[in-house]
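Lab meeting prep.
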Amino acid sequence: MSDDAIQKAITVLSEKIDQPSAPTDWFEMTQDRINNFADATLDQQWIHVDPERAKAGPFGAPIAHGQLTMSIMSFLPGGEGIGVPALDGVKMGVNYGWNRVRFMSPVAVGNRIRTSGKIKSVEKKGPMLEVINELTVEIEGQDKPACVGESVLRLVF
């Protein structure tokens, strides 16, 4: 892909720096999703997978793994391009990592969450662009977010 497509993408993304995206649709956290994540990651801690014991625990209900919340926050329904618009010439996006991830509020079974994004920076890295996108996961009816983290995305042209 030509440098022209990359330069155009830099211009488009730079204009969106610090502009909040529209949030995703609300998404319900279910016990089945938590159990499946626990099975996949081998993290079977009772605060996640034992509803009866978790009711008497520190959160009053089973909660999602922080890593589960972080794993799905970029992919919630209605969130195509959370903060990062479709760009001409992009073949794929690659998760390059995360900066400054914090889990501020637990996501209990039955909570509904959604994500919004805000591009913080864009930089050319060889034949790719690196986009830092601050993502925030809200919990419906709560002031304090569940998670805030900076996604490091590499766009391949």
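Slide two material, second protein:
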Amino acid sequence: MTMKRKALGLVLTLSLAVPAAAQSTFGGGDVVSRAAPLLSLRPAPRADVPVVQTVNRPARFEYWIDGFRRRALSQGISPATFDRAFAGVDYLPDVIRRDRNQAEFTKQLWEYLDTAVSATRVRNGKSAFADQRQTLARIEQRYGVEAEIVTAIWGLESAYGGYRGNTPTISAMATLAYDGRRASFFEAQLVAALKILQAGDTTPQSMRGSWAGAMGHTQFMPTSYLEHAVDFTGDGRRDIWSDNPADALASTAAYLKNFGWTKGQPWGVEVQLPQGFNYAVTGEKIKKSPREWARLGVRDMSGRQVPNHGRASILLPAGSRGAAFMIFDNFHVIERYNTADAYVIAVGHLSDRIKGGAAIQAAWPRGDRGLSFTEKKEMQRLLSNRGFSVGKVDGIIGPNTIQAVREYQASIGMEPDGYASLDILKRLR
């Protein structure tokens, strides 16, 4: 699911949780910022009403299906499986429209968190946690992933199973593969979906999800399903689509375990930084022990040294005027589910709240508006023109761009917190 890219900015498609990487799981230069060009984004189901706008298999689509059938059969798909899966397949123009518009809507982190970790979502999370307490406890015992983390992912991906998506998966991915913009990626997902059907885990009619192929309670892409899904109930099927969420929740725990989850280690801790703190030492590339951070004046929100959970970085998702987090290796494991910092913070914070933890205490710069995709590219071009390397100009505010912003800020006497704000863009202009 992951492309090893991530972002502090957030581009949403009218949904709450953006896709976890549609690269190999669910979900060079800079990292993911939820923009249309990203292969790592898995559209979330929240805004995914059934896609019903169809053009009954136009001639060119029929021609593409014939060619794809030969390619699928060469990869081990039986003729019977293929013909059964494609019997009701339609071309879905609305899927293409959604794919093209992924970069058009922006939200700031705090706006995203207002919805992602709303009072209602926290309350529903505590209720879902209680309802599935025994199942979650057994999952935690088997996979060593805390129940509240699994519950939080469930909450962000499908509102605890309430919005799993109702778009036919085969039709959606066939449409996207035929479209050609990410043909090889969606063909691979489509073959994986056919393998799932061939194994008997579900039926074409039941294989439904988001408009770009993410499926079930915790929104697995087909390739992620093949690699990580588990049959926790023991009924012989890895059924992430069932009303019973056990297989989906266990599959999520297995996924996190497979990518190195450390039981007992927090995703991150909100911290306070001292006056005169050197912002040049923030960012994921710089790691220190909590004791070393304490020597620099970093404390938790109660004024204590953060316990030694391993080496950690200081993350400033809104620069010096927003909350600061000391993040640990488990932060990066959650990134394997979805590469955006906003998503990881939302999962981590929601899990804390489900367990009874406090809300984020620091204020956010709520007067700031987010940069559009076009503005982010403009900022990168202007930074590059001034000699600050951003890597590829792609509209993705990741580590390279953040470092370039830091260097630019330092060059003009600003606090080098790396915050890619509208103010920075105006100064560059």
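Talking points for slide two:
The first strand starts at residue 10 and ends at 12.
The mean pLDDT is 87.
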